[in-house]
Amino acid sequence: MLVTMKEQLQKAKEGKYAVGMFNVMTVEMLQAVIEAAEEMRSPVIVGTSEGMASYIGIKNIAAMVKIAAEATDIPISLHLDHGTKLETLKKTIDAGYTSVMIDGSKNPLEENIAITREGAAIASPHGVTVEGELGRISGTEDTISVSEREASMTMPDEAEKFVAETGVDCLAVSIGNAHGIYKGEPKLDFDRLREIKKRVSTLLVLHGASGIPDDAVQEAITIGICKINIATDLQVAFISRVRKILENDSKIYDPRKILGPAEEDMKSVVKNKMELFMSAGKV
Ligand code: 13P
User: 178 with 208: CB under 8 angstroms?
Assistant: First the structure.
């Protein structure tokens, strides 16, 4: 069934687990995520980036998720990840997305608040969950200095102001996490996360979770993270299998024989994450 992300995450917060948001880019990736959720009896969030939504088509992806959700008792939400344009927010909400992120984090605090508040004013009246981001969750550039890294992290006092003034349901935090493949082992600032948790009662989100060690992921959940975003690990699993098949057989041309096994490998990764996030068996 199709649900809002807010109701999934409120249950996760109470139950001390996290719901995975898995970014999908192809129909096979969408199937892998939904089948994994069914097999693990886990709630799940299907994520599409702003670029991705227009790659498959916002209405197309919304229709596919709606049909899949109607056919199962697993709670599924459909989320716009890192939306930057209010126009995209409106389009996704009209198409039936049940959750949107408005990402104004590249702006100074006051501008981020203004953009996010505008996004929340568009989404909330439709009962659509709203996620905002404070601090910058960058890529994994190794040119970044320690002081730049510190400056990009979420300030707990600003988090309190941001949540109060924007009305977001969920807050994506920057605590040493980054998108993409980490150069070394990522070190999350758990004291900062504890301080943020003390200051805000909103639902807390961890982006860039591919490559974060399992014990750190579970510690973040223990402190209060209840949504975890995964993209890179899925892409690597999917494409590694595609690459292997093509390398082993230069004559193969049936897409099902290439993408089918890739879907299976990706599904295993999703299932492992559901175990790790402790959302498996929660339906
Ligand atoms: P990764 O690609 O690092 O898993 O990050 C995903 C993410 O946070 C999407 O918003």
Answer: yes
Q: How confident is the model at residue 148 (pLDDT cuts 50, 70, 90)?
A: low
H helix or E strand, kind and range, residue 44: strand 44-49
DSSP string of 161-222?
A: HHHHHH--SEEEE-SS--SS--SS-----HHHHHHHHHH--SEEEE---TTS-HHHHHHHHH
Q: Taking a C-beta distance cutoff of 8 angstroms, is the pair 42, 273 a contact?
A: no
Sign of CA dihedral 243, 245, 251, 254: negative
Encoded tokens for 96: 């039936």
Annotated catalytic residues are: 81
Mean pLDDT of the chain, nearest integer: 95
Pocket test for ligand 1, best of 205, 207, 212 (most atoms within 8 A of CB): 207
Q: What is the DSSP letter of 154?
A: P
Say how far apart CA 135 and CA 150 lie, in whole Å: 10
Q: What is the pLDDT of residues 10-19, one digit of tens each?
A: 999 999 999 9
Task: Report how far residue 13's alpha carbon sits from residue 171's, in angstroms, rounded to the nearest whole number.
Answer: 13
User: Can you say whether the dihedral through the CA atoms of 261, 265, 266, 268 is positive or negative?
Assistant: positive
How far is Cα 228 from Cα 211, in angstroms, rounded to an integer? 12
How far is the centre of ligand 1, averaged over its atoms, from the C-alpha of 177 (Å)? 9
Calculate ∠ Cα 101-271-36, nearest 5°: 80
What is the distance between the alpha carbons of residues 88 and 201, in angstroms, rounded to a whole number?
28
- Measured from the CB, is residue 116 less than 6 Å from ligand 1? no
In this structure, which topology does domain 5-276 adopt according to CATH?
TIM Barrel (3.20.20)
| Distance, CA of 221 to CA of 33 (rounded, Å) | 21
The number of the ligand 1 atom at minimal distance from the alpha carbon of 137 is: 8
For 176, phi and psi rounded to 5 degrees?
A: 105, 0
